[in-house]
Specification:
35% helix; 345 residues; 19% strand; alpha+beta; elongated; four-stranded mixed sheet; 15 strands
């Protein structure tokens, strides 16, 4: 019997361990899951924790179940490893495991063998699975995580720069071969708003809330470029962050409008850093690049965020229309998702 791990457990596995060329060499395809372990005895005998597979708290993402002809959203309680099981198996949860029946076809290159009889859904297949279980905004967020160039240290702290588990290009290629699979349509729509290469949680949150259309809770300002490079002149070189660089980087940037957004976290409060940041902004302004500086409290507070988005929309030449009640509800849900820790794996 084989364990086929998926959903949030697979996402969490790749976010923690990364997906390198060695892993890619172990990617395989299966036509069915008929040999999948699904009983408690079978699954525990494989001792998945030995291979770095850990239970994840599925807090805030819905378990979709049909009841009385209608879909009922339930949030799973407690920790569990998520596994895929054959069509004829009951999907009820058992101790320590959430079992998911995958009834549609399995796309090519969907699993990576990490140990004998132990297979983890690739980042691309895990994204497809999550799309079938999450809201649209949550799906976009998971896409950002999988394409991000950072990892958070255990216990918190400054993000560590790493190679992303996947990319928008890889996800697009996979989804092209997954047409008709459960969740594929939503995954393709969500992927349109995912951007490669974010380096911090706030870059992710700020980019999503600024770019998503108003019907999804965003401000509809269009997708920015992430960590965009602006070549520095010789006179500007003294304001660069590192001596080995010849360019400035702007966290979020709209090249056609020459407008950028920079996030100032706690590291930017150091007096020496403050002085350097101001000199840097002067250099950008001299090059006709306008930059708004944002902080967490501005993004987390509704009134402050609305004022900031109004300022940014004016700089971008984008008119902010009055939002409908449905759009207000969507915005409340999105900001709760991004700034109030209402969702995690």
């Amino acid at each position: 019997m084989r364990a086929y791990v998926g959903y949030s457990t697979a996402v969490q596995y790749w976010l923690k361990n990364g997906m390198d060329e060695t892993n890619r060499a172990n990617v395989v395809s299966f036509r069915s899951l008929n040999d999948a372990a699904y009983t408690l005895r079978q699954l525990t005998s494989l001792d998945l924790s030995l291979h770095g597979l850990e239970a994840s708290l599925a807090r805030g993402w819905p378990d979709l179940r049909r009841k009385g002809g209608r879909t009922k959203r339930e949030v799973p309680q407690g920790e569990a490893i998520h596994v895929l099981v054959p069509k004829n198996v009951d999907s009820n949860r058992i101790e320590g495991f959430n079992r998911h029946v995958w009834s549609t076809r399995i796309p090519e290159n969907s699993f990576c063998e990490i140990a004998p009889n132990t297979y983890v859904s690739t980042p691309e297949f895990a994204f497809l699975q999550m799309a079938g279980a999450l809201t649209f905004a949550q799906t976009v967020l998971v896409g950002y995580w999988l394409c991000a160039s950072y990892r958070l240290p255990e216990g918190g702290g400054v993000p560590i720069e790493v190679d992303p588990p996947t990319s928008v290009e890889r996800l697009q290629a996979f989804l092209q071969g997954a047409e008709g699979c459960y969740g594929a349509k939503k995954a393709c729509m969500a992927l349109r708003w995912v951007i490669d290469g974010t380096r911090s949680p706030m870059e992710v949150a700020t980019s999503i809330v600024m770019s998503l259309p108003t019907k999804y809770g965003g401000y509809g300002l269009g997708k920015p470029c992430i960590n965009y490079r602006i070549e520095a002149t010789d006179l500007d070189s003294g304001t660069l962050d590192r001596p080995d660089r010849t360019y400035f980087e702007i966290d979020l940037y709209w090249p056609k409008k020459r407008v950028g957004v920079e996030y100032d976290g706690s590291l930017h409060l150091d007096p020496a850093r403050v002085r350097k940041d101001k000199r840097r902004l002067n250099c950008l302004l001299a090059n006709e690049i306008r930059v708004l500086v944002v902080m967490y409290d501005q993004m987390a507070d509704d009134d402050a965020r609305n004022a900031l988005m109004y300022q940014l929309s004016k700089m971008l030449g984008s008119k902010q229309s009055a939002v409908t009640d449905a759009e207000k509800d969507a915005r409340e849900a999105l900001t709760g998702l991004l700034f109030q820790n209402e969702f995690s794996l």
